[in-house]
Specification:
By secondary structure, this protein is α/β, with parallel strands linked by helices. The protein has 13 helices and 13 strands.
Length: 336
């Protein structure tokens, strides 16, 4: 698998982003927006509900371009290799982090994230575009549809990167004709979360704040519906009420240096964006957060773990579960 130095541009885009079911069109299934009962694997056409209406994929796609955050690794998990992919986490190379066990036989053309180069996408001659987790603006969708191929965009409620992992998995699975495999992957990850909850009952009901510090030294906390909080809630934890009460239009809310006490909770999780974690570890303001001072801060200093946690994909969270749950459980057990 090819690997290269992370692109500065992608890192900046990820930092900016911080601050700030699909299937055959049949009956809805429990568990999320846009979820539908899966058709049989390989059955086409399929019609997939999105925030911009129903999208029909007429036949098995052969040239998939995956633009949404984690769309490419989700397609790979289902046995489909995109010919073009966006590298949201600035992994470099083919855009796959070490948490992805699959590999490409032919590395994809790496494309932009926030800004899509339509000419570059068109040059790949796609017959399907996946954009299930992105800003989800009408303008972005309209631009992509100019290429005249099915565009599977965000589900209803998925704006501002709030597409949850189940909806993403179902939408990609339906679009590439692998809904049964997607359902199996979903069941597998759900079982891993269930096992973690059973093994660490102290996580149940523990309040948590999940935040990040960007390259400018600014802190933010992830809000309800964001991927990071979804991971923690799958473990039985709950978003700290002072963060839940803050107004927000995206998946995170800024935390000023004067209000760092907002990061206090039974457990406080923090990760760096584009910088080394030592800048957080050595920051007196971080050290003064009550939960951190009491030894209940969980700093995701390992870049691979931090990015896998952020990926909100089956592969990313499978990787992150093994490497974060013991620390989260220890912190929760120490809560007053």
């Amino acid at each position: 698998m090819l690997r290269r130095t992370p692109s500065v541009l992608a890192a900046l885009l990820a930092a900016l982003a911080l601050l700030a079911g699909c299937g055959s069109g049949s009956d809805p299934a429990p568990g999320g927006e846009g979820a539908t009962a899966p058709a049989a694997d390989g059955a086409f056409p399929v019609t997939i509900p999105t925030a911009f209406g129903e999208v029909t994929v007429p036949e098995q796609p052969q040239r998939v371009v995956a633009l949404g955050w984690s769309d490419a690794e989700t397609a790979l998990a289902l046995g489909v290799e995109p010919v073009g992919a966006a590298d949201w986490l600035a992994v470099g190379g083919d855009g796959l982090g070490p948490w992805v066990p699959q590999d490409y036989t032919t590395p994809p053309t790496v494309l932009g994230t926030l800004e899509v180069d339509l000419e570059a996408v068109a040059a790949l001659d796609p017959d399907l575009i996946l954009d299930t987790r992105a800003a989800g603006t009408r303008d972005r969708y309209d631009r992509l549809t100019q290429l005249g191929v099915p565009v599977v965009s965000i589900p209803a409620g998925g704006e501002n990167y709030l597409t949850n992992w189940r909806d993403q998995l179902r939408m990609v699975g339906a679009a590439v004709g692998r809904p049964g495999e997607a359902a199996q992957l979903q069941s597998g990850l759900e079982q891993r979360f269930a096992d973690a909850r059973a093994q660490h009952p102290q996580l149940a009901g523990a309040t948590v704040v999940s935040g990040a510090r960007n390259t400018l030294g600014e802190y933010a906390a992830y809000t309800a519906g964001s991927g990071r909080m979804e991971f923690l809630e799958e473990l039985g934890m709950t978003l700290a009420p002072q963060i839940a009460a803050l107004p927000t239009e995206g998946f995170s809310t800024p935390i000023s240096r004067e209000r760092m006490n907002l990061l206090d909770a039974d457990v406080t999780v923090m990760q760096p964006i584009g910088k080394d974690a030592t800048e957080i570890e050595n920051d007196p303001l971080w050290q003064a957060v009550p939960s951190v001072a009491a030894g209940r801060g969980v700093l995701l200093s390992d870049r691979d773990v931090s990015q896998a946690f952020s990926a909100a994909s089956v592969q990313g969270w499978t990787f992150a579960l093994d490497r974060t749950v013991p620390r989260l459980a220890d912190a929760a057990a120490a809560a007053p």
